[in-house]
């Protein structure tokens, strides 16, 4: 509640009497910009702790140590942290090339779901027809293709008719969700349960190999590989360079002869295919099942991860770690103190508000008027 | 004139941007029932001065008097309250609204909200001054002149007694111009004070009662139209020639490199912007292009570079080695490059088109060449080498080759762009306003680079705005006016007055005058 | 059966109508508020919390306060979230998509948390439920039962349903026929022009976003207090917030068309109950229809590029006067 009061005050001062004006910063040192971000995160943590203390009456330090415990108190928790981190990272990497091009792909959820659907379909229909390695390959390819298709459709209309991509990709999410809901009922097992259950639980067909007894290790390694590849793709390839130019200025792109429409469509196919990869990993390496909530809102969280990291894959490791860490910490508090675990989302929201707000102070500076000539 | 009341009086207005003056101690006055022309070249400070009156800019010093009382104008709203209205060159209208809705937009002091009543008043105003307007027509269905009518009526609707029009005829056909002038005369007879910013001499002479001339941010003087002529006005506008001492060699073995014949093209709004343009650019020579801003310079260069569609006509490129002719008409920049034509182009909008502001010098060096090499990977080695070389050779001051170019000063940004375009070893080099906003030192660096290209046998096309520079730097000067070529002169023999007259006169203008 | 179906469709349509009307007003100012789903959750949750706290703090709750307190709580809750969104995007110029999604994350998290824990925090038992207050929200006109099918079709809803329709019609009138409506549309279309005409762009954006958020929040309130009969289920509101955003496109940013859109979408949402033998599966495909229809509308409007049916031109972009 405290923040609301200060917000309201700032608004009135800005509207009524411009005591200061806002100018874009010419440049800011990285130390300063990180300092601003760290201050924002720290103050958001203070607010969050305050809220928890108000609700539970606990010592704030207990709260902070519980947050830490959420991720690191046992080996299992560390693995869960790594799994969640890598899946969030995977989807974030997927949306990044589109965002870099200033194409607002908020359809990662749907692109991931159709990818998962394709993998699940292969597992169900081909599970006893193909050897496991071939099956996995078919699953991977069909997931990539399904995700790519889901990305291609809005991109085509954007390139051709300039159809608003934010709204288009948003709608595509719900079509994917309903599609999955339909197939879940088609494949439901046992009958009448409305869930698919573990697919191929007896044969394990279409399951990613478990390395060293660690179920999540292979998906994590795959995402690590994708991170490296995406970093290289964006920074060191001709296509990545074209994405940057188109995103920065379509005029410049045309001036040097880049086919802007082609770049939009190609990039969204890549973005969608990578979301499809996330769907594949969920089905074949983590959950072994399919449901409409499989991606679990990662498509939306990924937007924030990618944006916070300024579309840099390496920073994205940090920003997705931050979000997963806070989320797990909040869940831990919820379990420890028998709170409803939705508190995690509420707290994440507060932290995001602060980080989003802090970007303003990185990009702009307030200059207080010396002369009162605007009264 | 003596019984007339002073409507607006400016005293010692000074406005600067950074360390550059837009206006320096400018004073002038306008009477009710009078049309005053403010005349001057591009960058002489006409528009800035009028923006001060309209509340867009706040002056550094000086006073504004309206009807004899000092007025403090800090916003367009303030200007309206003093009955001052300005019609900008770029219309400020909401596309999906109709004329009436646009006209009443932002008026809060009227009682009630009655579009029907507003509509009636608009028709009244239109009838009074002879405007032709459909109050229910949507802006997106309107021609440029209709939009302008909406803008003028909006100002009148708000009760303006002092109207400022910024280059109102720049976008109009001769017929539309005549209609506008009739309207303006009727408004004058109704007692309004009207200021029009222009650089077309015949319009000045036919329309206005007095002419105030600005030159390089300073006030030159005011003359009564009936007592002056084109020659005097041109002299006031361009001033005496200043010696710049720009180096110039004789062209060596000039031969045809680019032959443009009879090209026509339209902009996105469907307005014809180039009409039957023909010229030839020769190797080892600098061809200057002069003209008032917006006379078709940008479209012409973009048409050659493959960025602007041509309706008709040909652009032939003659290969310096094989002497083969190749048609560049409606090719994309990529196709032109693939044909082996080494065409370099420094566009007017440096950071919005020529460079990517958020990228460093190295990555900007790659813009033209990133496709080179068989791999899918970029090679930053050569661009890095090139960047370092350009930084050193052109004395670009930057922390390093990776700093985003938008953080560099205007002069350094331009050196990066020109440096890259020269590094491509062009056979044709086009530059639009390459010294705009640059200080003297940086400007001379650019002149030297252009001269160097010329000596290397490149056909250089230089679009400039400073006539002194054009005359001293170029070999020939082509003058554009209203999208047509109004003349091509030998730079060694011409005078500023000759070019100035060509700039403000086109074939059509002379037709109208008859 | 048709009448039952239609009256149920209306019940489904009302939250969507509140949401889409609120989002239309918001978007007309140029703000694409993807926080609407969270704001609607918040509107519902704050309302039921207010009702619960009131019902449990007095011995004999008064009928008027049973309605007024949830209403006020809902307005405060959704208005507060909309204010955060406005502050971040208008004053701090943050990216609208990112901010909106964060608002949705927060709104749903906050609501599910308090919806699930309020009872325990107040030392009560069982589910969060406010039967008494809900009864007042559900109260229909006394003569509705006597009118048979006509009564069921037109008069069988609580007062908020009529409020939704009135707000939608009033908004359409406001946008088309009033000075403030004209100026609001100008802000969303071309803020620079509006600014030059002397309109306070920030003020309009703040007001439109906050009022739009409050209207959308009433959709959540209706859902909880009327549709579900005053008991909270976690996630019960589902994806109705996103559906409301879809209706905005379907209605091509016209609140009166939004009434039709909400009815169509509401009907499609429950059509699967009536598919009979086709079963639950086909029902899921039916639920896909609203989104497909929305995409088709979106594509057709962009292809025909008829200016009136386009999104506000400056939708999703921040505005600030260029620094001189």
Descriptive overview:
The complex is a heterotrimer of chains A (375), B (514) and C (324). Chain A is mostly helical and 375 residues long. Chain A is built from 14 helices and two strands; from the N terminus they run αβαααααααααααααβ. In chain A, 73% of the residues lie in helices and 3% in strands. Chain A has a two-stranded antiparallel sheet with strand order 1-2. The longest helix of chain A is centred in the middle third of the chain and has 30 residues, at 132-161. With 514 residues, chain B is α/β, with parallel strands linked by helices. Helices cover 33% and strands 25% of the residues of chain B. In chain B, α8 packs across α17, α13 crosses α14 and α14 packs parallel to α15 (440-455). Chain B is globular. Chain C is mainly α and 324 residues long. Helices cover 73% and strands 0% of the residues of chain C. The model of chain C has no long low-confidence stretch (mean pLDDT 88). Classes of the chains: A mainly alpha (375), B alpha/beta (514), C mainly alpha (324). The A-B interface holds A 26-27, 236-242, 244-245, 248-249, 251-252, 254-259, 373-374 and B 58, 74, 305-307, 332-337, 345, 347, 349, 352-359, 363, 366-368, 370-371, 376-378, 407.
In short:
Chain A has helices at residues 2-16, 30-56, 60-72, 75-100, 108-126, 132-161, 165-187, 217-236, 238-248, 250-255, 260-287, 298-308, 313-336, 343-363; strands spanning 20-24, 364-368. Chain A has 375 residues and is an all-alpha fold.
What fold name stands as the CATH topology of the largest domain in chain B? Rossmann fold
State the helical fraction of chain B: 25-40%
Oligomer: heterotrimer
Enumerate the spans of chain C where pLDDT stays under 50 for 5 or more consecutive residues: none
User: How many separate structural domains of chain C?
Assistant: 1
Cα distance spanning the termini of chain C: 66 Å
Strand content of chain B: 25-35%
**Structural class of chain B, please?**
alpha/beta
- Encode the helix/strand succession of chain C as letters: HHHHHHHHHHHHH
How many DSSP E strands of chain C?
Answer: 0
Specify the structural class of chain C.
mainly alpha
Stretches of chain B where pLDDT is under 50 for at least 5 consecutive residues are 509-514
Percent helix of chain C, as a range, is over 70%
The coarse silhouette of chain C is globular
Q: How would you describe the shape of chain B?
A: globular
Overall CATH class of chain C: Mainly Alpha
Largest interface: A-C, 60 and 65 residues
Mean pLDDT score of chain C: 88
């Amino acid at each position: 509640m405290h923040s609301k009061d200060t917000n309201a005050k700032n608004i009135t001062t800005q509207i009524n009497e411009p005591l200061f004006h806002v100018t874009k910063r010419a440049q800011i040192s990285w130390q300063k910009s990180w300092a601003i971000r760290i201050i924002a995160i720290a103050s958001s943590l203070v607010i969050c702790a305050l809220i928890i203390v108000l609700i539970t009456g606990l010592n704030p330090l207990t709260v902070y140590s519980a947050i830490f415990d959420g991720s690191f108190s046992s080996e299992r928790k560390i693995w869960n942290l790594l799994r969640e981190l890598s899946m969030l990272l995977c989807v974030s990497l997927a949306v990044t090339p589109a965002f870099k091009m200033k194409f607002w792909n908020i359809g990662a959820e749907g692109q991931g779901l159709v990818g998962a659907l394709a993998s699940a379909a292969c597992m169900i229909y081909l599970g006893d027809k193909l050897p496991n390695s071939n099956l996995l390959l078919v699953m991977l390819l069909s997931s990539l293709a399904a995700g790519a298709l889901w990305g291609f459709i809005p991109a085509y209309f954007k390139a051709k008719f300039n159809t608003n991509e934010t709204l288009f990709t948003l709608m595509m999410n719900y079509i994917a969700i309903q599609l999955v809901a339909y197939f879940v009922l088609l494949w439901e097992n046992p009958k009448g349960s409305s869930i698919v259950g573990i697919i191929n639980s007896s044969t394990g067909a279409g399951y990613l190999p478990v390395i060293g007894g660690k179920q999540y290790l292979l998906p994590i390694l795959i995402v690590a590989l994708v991170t490296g590849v995406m970093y290289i793709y964006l920074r060191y390839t001709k296509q990545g360079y074209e994405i940057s130019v188109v995103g920065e200025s379509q005029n410049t792109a045309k001036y040097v002869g880049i086919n802007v429409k082609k770049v939009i469509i190609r990039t969204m196919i890549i973005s969608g295919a990578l979301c499809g990869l996330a769907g594949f990993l969920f089905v074949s390496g983590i959950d072994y099942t399919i449901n409409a909530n499989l991606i679990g809102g990662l498509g939306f969280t990924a937007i924030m991860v990618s944006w916070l990291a300024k579309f840099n894959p390496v920073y994205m490791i940090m920003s997705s770690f931050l979000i997963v860490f806070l989320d797990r910490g909040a869940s831990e508090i919820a379990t420890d103190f028998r709170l409803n675990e939705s508190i995690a989302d509420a707290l994440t929201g507060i932290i995001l508000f602060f980080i989003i707000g802090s970007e303003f102070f990185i990009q702009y500076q307030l200059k207080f008027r010396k002369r009162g000539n605007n009264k | 004139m003596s019984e007339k009341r002073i409507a607006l009086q400016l005293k010692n207005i000074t406005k600067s941007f950074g360390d550059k003056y837009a206006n320096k101690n400018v004073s002038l006055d306008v009477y009710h029932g009078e049309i005053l022309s403010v005349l001057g070249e591009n960058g002489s400070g006409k528009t800035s001065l009028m923006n001060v009156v309209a509340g867009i800019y706040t002056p550094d010093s000086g006073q504004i008097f309206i009807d004899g009382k000092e007025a403090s104008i800090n916003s367009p709203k303030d200007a309206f309250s003093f009955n001052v209205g300005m019609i900008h060159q770029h219309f400020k209208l909401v596309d999906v609204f109709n004329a009436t809705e646009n006209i009443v937009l932002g008026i809060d002091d009227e009682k009630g909200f009655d579009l029907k009543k507003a509509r009636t008043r608009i028709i009244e105003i239109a009838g009074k001054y002879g405007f032709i307007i459909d109050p229910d027509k949507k802006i997106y269905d309107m021609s440029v002149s209709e939009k302008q009518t909406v803008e003028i009526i909006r100002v009148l609707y708000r009760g303006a007694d002092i109207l400022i029009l910024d280059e109102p005829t720049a976008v109009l056909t001769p017929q539309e111009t005549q209609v506008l002038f009739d309207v303006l005369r009727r408004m004058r007879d109704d007692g309004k004070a009207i200021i029009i910013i222009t650089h077309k001499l015949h319009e000045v002479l036919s329309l206005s009662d007095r002419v105030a001339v600005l030159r390089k941010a300073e006030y030159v003087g005011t003359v009564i139209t009936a007592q002056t002529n084109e020659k005097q006005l041109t002299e006031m506008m361009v001033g005496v020639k200043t010696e710049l001492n720009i180096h110039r060699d004789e062209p060596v073995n000039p031969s045809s490199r680019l032959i443009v014949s009879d090209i026509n093209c339209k902009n996105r709004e469907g307005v014809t912007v180039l009409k039957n343009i023909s010229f030839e650019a020769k190797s080892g020579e600098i061809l200057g292009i002069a003209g008032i801003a917006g006379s078709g310079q940008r479209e012409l260069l973009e048409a050659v570079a493959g960025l602007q569609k041509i309706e008709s006509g040909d652009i032939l490129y003659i290969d310096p080695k094989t002497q083969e002719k190749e048609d560049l008409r409606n090719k994309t920049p990529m196709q032109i490059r693939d044909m082996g034509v080494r065409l370099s182009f420094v566009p007017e909008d440096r950071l919005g088109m020529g460079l990517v502001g958020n990228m460093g010098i190295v990555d900007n060096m790659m813009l033209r060449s990133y496709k080179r090499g068989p791999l899918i990977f970029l090679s930053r080695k050569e661009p890095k080498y090139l960047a370092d070389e350009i930084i050193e050779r052109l004395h670009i001051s930057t922390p390093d080759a990776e700093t985003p170019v938008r953080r560099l000063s205007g002069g350094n940004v331009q050196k990066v762009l020109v440096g890259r375009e020269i590094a491509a070893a062009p056979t044709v080099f086009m530059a639009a306003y390459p010294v705009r906003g640059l200080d003297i030192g940086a400007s001379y660096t650019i002149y030297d680079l252009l001269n160097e290209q010329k000596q290397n046998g490149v056909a250089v096309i230089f679009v400039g705005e400073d006539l002194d520079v054009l005359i001293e730097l170029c070999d020939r000067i082509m003058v554009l006016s209203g999208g047509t070529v109004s003349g091509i002169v030998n730079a060694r023999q011409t005078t500023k007055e000759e070019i100035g007259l060509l700039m403000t006169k086109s074939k059509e203008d002379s037709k109208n005058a008859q | 059966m048709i009448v039952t179906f239609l009256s149920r469709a209306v019940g489904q349509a009302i939250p969507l109508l509140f949401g889409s009307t609120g989002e239309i007003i918001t978007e007309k100012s140029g703000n694409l508020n993807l926080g609407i789903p969270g704001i609607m959750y918040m509107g519902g949750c704050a309302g039921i919390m207010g009702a619960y706290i009131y019902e449990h703090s007095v011995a004999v709750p008064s009928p008027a306060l049973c309605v007024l307190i949830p209403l006020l709580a809902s307005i405060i809750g959704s208005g507060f979230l909309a204010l955060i969104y406005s502050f971040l995007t208008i004053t701090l110029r943050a990216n609208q998509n990112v901010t909106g999604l964060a608002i949705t994350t927060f709104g749903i998290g906050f609501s599910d948390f308090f919806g699930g824990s309020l009872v325990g925090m107040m030392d009560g038992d069982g589910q969060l439920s406010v039967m008494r207050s809900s009864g007042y929200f559900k109260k229909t006109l006394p003569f509705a039962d006597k009118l048979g099918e006509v009564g069921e079709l037109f008069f069988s809803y609580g007062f908020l349903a009529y409020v939704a329709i009135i707000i939608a019609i009033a908004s359409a009138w406001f946008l088309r026929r009033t000075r403030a409506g004209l100026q609001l549309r100008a802000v969303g279309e071309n803020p620079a022009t509006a600014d030059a005409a002397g309109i306070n762009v920030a003020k309009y954006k703040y007001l439109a976003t906050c009022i739009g958020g409050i209207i959308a929040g009433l959709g959540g309130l209706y859902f909880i207090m009327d549709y579900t009969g005053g008991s909270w289920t976690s996630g019960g509101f589902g994806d109705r917030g996103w559906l409301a955003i879809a209706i905005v496109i379907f209605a091509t940013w016209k609140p009166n068309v939004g009434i039709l859109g909400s009815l169509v979408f509401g009907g499609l949402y429950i059509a699967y109950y009536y598919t009979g033998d086709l079963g639950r599966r086909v029902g899921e495909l039916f639920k896909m229809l609203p989104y497909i229809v929305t995409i088709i509308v979106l594509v057709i409007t962009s292809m025909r590029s008829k200016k009136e049916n386009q999104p506000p031109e400056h939708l999703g972009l921040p505005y600030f006067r260029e620094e001189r």
